[in-house]
């Protein structure tokens, strides 16, 4: 939407990063069956702009787990509103830590199979 764009009509990178963080958060919460917090984002580089009106799709997959942490790889793609060709606009690795009700790290289940995604 226009409120999420700069004067040139490109979507703010922070808005796109927030969408990616939400997708990664869904994967993290599902895997640890509870609350998780983002602790790092690695390797984000914006390759292409997203324009007002574009369809944006975000894909996330659980890559690995540690004792309390989860690594989730996320890609964002755009498709013009009136077109069919998709292009990747960015990707990043999000690291989450499972937390308990006191916001302290807690153990996460082992990774049963690879690339559990949305």
Kindly list the characteristics that best describe this protein.
single chain, 118 residues, alpha+beta, Thiol Ester Dehydrase, Chain A, 1 helix
Please tell me the CATH architecture by its name.
Roll
| Largest sheet report | 5 strands, antiparallel
Q: What distance separates the N and C termini?
A: 23 Å
Mean pLDDT: 92
How is the quaternary structure best described? Answer: single chain
Quickly name the level 1 CATH class: Alpha Beta
Q: What is the number of independent domains?
A: 1
> Order of SSEs, N→C?
HEEEEE
Structural class: alpha+beta
Based on CA atoms alone, the radius of gyration comes out at 16 Å
Q: Name the shape in a single word.
A: elongated
The CATH topology name reads: Thiol Ester Dehydrase, Chain A
> Superfamily at the CATH H level?
Hotdog Thioesterase
Task: List segments where confidence is low: pLDDT < 50 over at least 5 consecutive residues.
Answer: none
Task: Give an overview of the whole structure.
The protein has one domain (2-111): Roll (Thiol Ester Dehydrase, Chain A), CATH 3.10.129.10. The two termini are 23 Å apart. The chain has one helix at residues 13-32; strands at residues 36-46, 55-65, 69-79, 87-98, 116-117. The mean pLDDT is 92. Strand 2 (55-65) and strand 3 form a beta hairpin. The radius of gyration is 16 Å and the shape is elongated. Strands 1-4-3-2-5 form a 5-stranded antiparallel beta sheet, covered by helices on one side. Helix content is 17%, strand content 40%. With 118 residues, it is of the alpha+beta class.
